[in-house]
Amino acid sequence: MFPSFNVLGEELQPCSTDPLTGWFRDGCCNTDRNDTGLHTVCCLVTEDFLEFARQQGNDLITPVPEFNFPGLKPGDRWCVCAQTWQDATEAGVACPIVLGATHEETLQIVSLEILEQYAA
């Protein structure tokens, strides 16, 4: 696979393998042109963030066994859509993020300055 970089310009670090996350379900917040939601922000999800996402129509709490999705609980790491995370920031419910595991494509949506404010 091609090398990917994080928002700091370094090699992209894994986000989570348990639960297994990522657009490609490779544990990293990698992306390609088919990922229209830009699932590139490695989050440490919180209860407030999970509830916000559910209110936006993205239920990350309820397990979906047919897609090997266990459902998330606070403290899990997950690659979330950059715009969803940005919207959560504006709503005051953004969760901490792992900069080293957040893909550089996130910078199309969110500034590094804001990302750094929420670094875990």
What does this protein structure show overall?
The protein is 20% helix and 9% strand. The chain has a two-stranded antiparallel sheet with strand order 1-2. The chain has three helices and two strands. It has one domain (1-120): Phenylalanyl-tRNA Synthetase, Chain B, domain 1. The longest helix has 9 residues, at 47-55. With 120 residues, it is α+β, with helices and mostly antiparallel strands. InterPro entries: DUF2237. It holds the Pfam family DUF2237. This is DUF2237 domain-containing protein. It comes from uncultured marine group II/III euryarchaeote KM3_162_H08.
Can you give keywords for this protein?
single chain, alpha+beta, two-stranded antiparallel ribbon, 9% strand, 120 residues
Outline:
With 120 residues, the chain is of the alpha+beta class. 20% of the residues lie in helices and 9% in strands.
Q: What is the succession of H and E elements?
A: EHEHH
Can you tell me the CATH superfamily?
A: Protein of unknown function DUF2237
The unreliable regions are none
CATH architecture: 2-Layer Sandwich
List the helices and strands and how they pair.
Blueprint: E1 39-44, H1 47-55, E2 77-81, H2 82-90, H3 112-117
Antiparallel strand pairs: 1-2
